[in-house]
Amino acid sequence: MAPTTQPVTVTVTGAGGQIGYALLFRIASGQLLGPDTPVRLNLLEIPLGLRAAEGTALELIDGAFPLLASVDVTDDAAAAFDGTNVALLVGARPRSAGMERADLLEANAAIFGPQGRAINEHAASDVRVLVVGNPANTNALIASAHAPDVPPERFTAMTRLDHNRAVAQLALKAEASVTDVDGVIVWGNHSATQYPDVSHATIGGRPALEVVDEAWCEEVFVPKVARRGAEIIEVRGASSAASAANAAIDHVYDWVNGTGDRWTSAGVTTSGPNAEAAASYGIPEGLVCSLPVRSQGGEWQVVTGLENSAVARAHIEASVAELIDEREAVRALSLLPG
User: Which domain range does residue 175 map to?
Assistant: First the structure.
């Protein structure tokens, strides 16, 4: 998206929550789209969350951000997504004690299905959607399925948080800067089955597996990254907020402004223009799956031609199987149209 004097409309759902609070001021400051792009902020909340979102809106106004053209708060999805160019779907139903997975999927379908329809009916023709609320991959699939007029590649799920966690853990182990780490991949679902892969990564220009021990990667690194969210909940007493907001900023900024020759990780559709690339890694159509991607011309493109070991393929297959199970559970509940 080229610098423009016309404001870009950004919609944030769950705007009264902790991630929303950590996210909105950075959007207003220009970190989401760039320092030359003014933004209109639309904040969507459920009725119980409106007062918190309204309080955040007051603070945004008091911040006197030069790039903030306007901020509006609503509980009406049609109004929130009217003319939206970038949508960050943060609000979701968390899993509560005793809740079965089917119940969680059904509860979130009641959120992301209507939001997908509202995006389809009211958003701008160039809309880009990032789903942050978990289960992010399947929520993105649900939202996309309810927006038949929006190309499915415009709906993405956030695995950049997992990617950033993987980069940070590698840098800590190697006693290096995070800027020295390149080529990490997160495959599969944003869940404990994800596979943070270092086999194609470098640290300071050297193959990562020459710098860190392969056994450490499999026995410590992979479970550490996959379970980092649970660790933060245990230590902090609440789920990740600022780091999740930071990852959302990174995802959208790279999507809009490009990644150059480097790749990152994002949950993208395995259908349409990505089908052949996904199939080359043994991943079927009809999912939203984390893959290595570059952004060029404002579009995510799956990196192809990477050779995966038998160990990596087994990890990837397990996470993809979970995505298929989630999709079939949603279908069984008649939550996907068609």
Answer: 160-328
